[in-house]
Amino acid sequence: MTEYVGIPYKVGGRTKEGADCYGLVRLILNEKFGKKLPLLAEVKEEGPGHGSAEAISAGRSLISARPVETPEDGDIVGMRIRGVLAHLGVYWHGWVIHTLSGHDSALDRFDGIRLKGRIEGIYRV
User: Fold this and answer.
1) What is the CATH code for 2-124?
2) What percent of the chain has pLDDT over 90?
Protein backbone atom coordinates (compact mmCIF):
# COMPACT_ATOMS: atom_id res chain seq x y z
CA MET A 1 0.00 0.00 0.00
CA THR A 2 3.02 2.27 0.40
CA GLU A 3 2.96 3.04 -3.34
CA TYR A 4 -0.15 5.16 -2.65
CA VAL A 5 1.47 7.23 0.12
CA GLY A 6 2.66 10.66 -0.97
CA ILE A 7 0.30 11.13 -3.92
CA PRO A 8 -0.31 14.87 -4.24
CA TYR A 9 -3.81 16.16 -3.56
CA LYS A 10 -5.52 17.29 -6.77
CA VAL A 11 -9.19 18.23 -7.03
CA GLY A 12 -10.84 15.75 -9.40
CA GLY A 13 -7.59 13.77 -9.72
CA ARG A 14 -7.81 10.01 -10.25
CA THR A 15 -4.18 8.92 -10.78
CA LYS A 16 -0.91 8.50 -8.88
CA GLU A 17 0.11 11.88 -10.26
CA GLY A 18 -2.66 13.52 -8.20
CA ALA A 19 -5.96 12.54 -6.58
CA ASP A 20 -8.68 13.79 -4.27
CA CYS A 21 -10.13 11.48 -1.62
CA TYR A 22 -12.68 9.84 -3.93
CA GLY A 23 -10.08 9.50 -6.69
CA LEU A 24 -7.63 7.84 -4.31
CA VAL A 25 -10.29 5.41 -3.05
CA ARG A 26 -11.29 4.63 -6.65
CA LEU A 27 -7.65 4.11 -7.70
CA ILE A 28 -6.80 1.79 -4.79
CA LEU A 29 -9.97 -0.28 -5.02
CA ASN A 30 -9.45 -0.76 -8.75
CA GLU A 31 -5.73 -1.55 -8.70
CA LYS A 32 -5.47 -3.51 -5.44
CA PHE A 33 -8.87 -5.15 -5.15
CA GLY A 34 -10.23 -5.29 -8.71
CA LYS A 35 -13.32 -3.30 -7.70
CA LYS A 36 -14.57 -0.75 -10.20
CA LEU A 37 -16.04 2.48 -8.91
CA PRO A 38 -17.50 4.90 -11.45
CA LEU A 39 -16.01 8.30 -12.13
CA LEU A 40 -17.59 10.88 -9.85
CA ALA A 41 -19.20 12.56 -12.89
CA GLU A 42 -20.99 9.26 -13.62
CA VAL A 43 -22.08 9.02 -10.00
CA LYS A 44 -23.48 12.56 -10.03
CA GLU A 45 -25.55 11.71 -13.10
CA GLU A 46 -27.40 9.13 -10.99
CA GLY A 47 -28.75 11.83 -8.70
CA PRO A 48 -27.68 14.55 -6.33
CA GLY A 49 -25.18 13.32 -3.78
CA HIS A 50 -25.36 9.69 -4.95
CA GLY A 51 -22.05 7.94 -4.42
CA SER A 52 -20.43 10.66 -2.39
CA ALA A 53 -19.81 10.99 1.32
CA GLU A 54 -22.98 13.12 1.43
CA ALA A 55 -24.91 10.18 0.00
CA ILE A 56 -23.89 8.02 2.94
CA SER A 57 -25.06 10.58 5.47
CA ALA A 58 -28.34 10.99 3.60
CA GLY A 59 -28.91 7.24 3.77
CA ARG A 60 -28.30 6.60 0.07
CA SER A 61 -25.92 3.88 -1.05
CA LEU A 62 -22.28 4.48 -1.92
CA ILE A 63 -22.17 2.86 -5.35
CA SER A 64 -23.78 -0.31 -4.02
CA ALA A 65 -21.51 -0.33 -0.95
CA ARG A 66 -23.05 -1.63 2.25
CA PRO A 67 -22.28 -0.63 5.81
CA VAL A 68 -20.31 -3.14 7.89
CA GLU A 69 -19.31 -3.24 11.56
CA THR A 70 -15.81 -4.71 11.34
CA PRO A 71 -13.38 -3.40 8.73
CA GLU A 72 -11.54 -5.62 6.28
CA ASP A 73 -8.79 -4.66 3.88
CA GLY A 74 -10.26 -2.68 0.98
CA ASP A 75 -13.27 -1.33 2.86
CA ILE A 76 -14.16 2.34 2.43
CA VAL A 77 -13.91 4.41 5.59
CA GLY A 78 -16.22 7.41 5.79
CA MET A 79 -14.95 10.25 7.98
CA ARG A 80 -16.39 13.45 9.38
CA ILE A 81 -14.80 16.83 8.83
CA ARG A 82 -16.16 19.58 11.06
CA GLY A 83 -18.93 17.22 12.16
CA VAL A 84 -20.11 16.36 8.63
CA LEU A 85 -19.40 13.17 6.69
CA ALA A 86 -17.26 14.61 3.92
CA HIS A 87 -14.18 12.43 3.49
CA LEU A 88 -13.30 8.90 2.36
CA GLY A 89 -10.32 6.60 2.74
CA VAL A 90 -9.43 2.91 2.37
CA TYR A 91 -8.85 0.51 5.28
CA TRP A 92 -5.64 -1.56 5.13
CA HIS A 93 -4.24 -3.72 7.97
CA GLY A 94 -5.36 -1.38 10.75
CA TRP A 95 -4.54 1.77 8.82
CA VAL A 96 -6.54 4.19 6.66
CA ILE A 97 -4.99 5.67 3.55
CA HIS A 98 -6.54 8.97 2.54
CA THR A 99 -5.76 12.43 1.19
CA LEU A 100 -7.02 15.83 2.28
CA SER A 101 -7.00 19.16 0.50
CA GLY A 102 -3.54 20.65 0.71
CA HIS A 103 -1.89 17.38 1.82
CA ASP A 104 -0.34 14.40 0.07
CA SER A 105 -1.95 11.03 0.69
CA ALA A 106 -0.96 9.43 3.99
CA LEU A 107 -1.58 6.51 6.29
CA ASP A 108 -3.23 7.04 9.68
CA ARG A 109 -3.97 4.37 12.29
CA PHE A 110 -7.63 3.36 12.15
CA ASP A 111 -7.75 3.56 15.95
CA GLY A 112 -5.25 6.41 16.23
CA ILE A 113 -5.63 9.89 17.63
CA ARG A 114 -5.94 11.64 14.24
CA LEU A 115 -9.05 9.65 13.30
CA LYS A 116 -10.50 9.26 16.80
CA GLY A 117 -14.12 10.35 16.78
CA ARG A 118 -14.06 11.12 13.05
CA ILE A 119 -14.98 7.74 11.58
CA GLU A 120 -18.61 7.82 10.54
CA GLY A 121 -18.84 4.34 9.06
CA ILE A 122 -17.22 1.48 7.18
CA TYR A 123 -18.55 0.44 3.79
CA ARG A 124 -17.85 -2.61 1.64
CA VAL A 125 -18.16 -2.63 -2.14
Assistant:
1) 3.90.1720.10
2) 63
- The answer to whether 68 and 122 have CB atoms below 8 angstroms apart is yes
Burial (CB count <10 Å: 0-12, 13-18, 19+), residue 71: buried
Q: What is the mean pLDDT of the chain?
A: 84
Residues 6 or more apart whose CB falls under 8 angstroms from that of 42 comprise: none
Count CB atoms within 10 A of the CB of residue 32. Answer: 15
The answer on pLDDT for 47 being more than 90 is: no
- Which pLDDT score is estimated for 45? 40
Q: Is the pTM of this model over 0.85?
A: no
One-character DSSP codes across the chain: -GGGTTPPB-TT-EETTEE-HHHHHHHHHHHHH------HHHHHHTSTTTTSHHHHHTT--BTTBEEESS--TT-EEEEEETTEEEEEEEEETTEEEE--TTS--EEEETTSTTTTTTEEEEEE-
